[in-house]
TrEMBL record:
Residues 1-59 form the KaiB domain. InterPro entries: KaiB-like, KaiB_domain, Thioredoxin-like_sf. Residues 20-39 are annotated as: Disordered. This is KaiB domain-containing protein. It holds the Pfam family KaiB.
Length: 66
C-alpha cells in the first residue's frame, strides 16, 4: 500500500493485556500510535477516514490505477 515505507504493526487487546497497553501509554481505545516518532504520535477514536490517518502518520499513499 505504501511505497518505500515499512512498518511494524502490533495489536494489543487491552482487556487481556492491560499491562502492555499501560506500558505503551494507551489511555483510551481505539488508539493508533507511531512510537518511532519523538514524541510518539497518536490518534484516538474514529478511524473511518483512512486517507486522513495515513497523512497524519506521514505515509504517502500509492496512487490507484483505474
Amino acid at each position: 500500500m505504501f511505497r518505500g515505507h515499512k512498518c511494524r504493526i502490533e495489536v494489543v487487546d487491552v482487556l487481556t493485556s492491560p499491562e502492555a497497553a499501560e506500558s505503551a501509554g494507551v489511555l483510551a481505545t481505539p488508539t493508533l500510535s507511531d512510537d518511532s516518532a519523538t514524541p510518539p504520535r497518536r490518534i484516538i477514536g474514529d478511524f473511518s477516514n483512512v486517507d486522513q490517518i495515513i497523512a497524519f502518520f506521514g505515509c504517502p499513499r500509492k496512487e490507484k490505477h483505474r
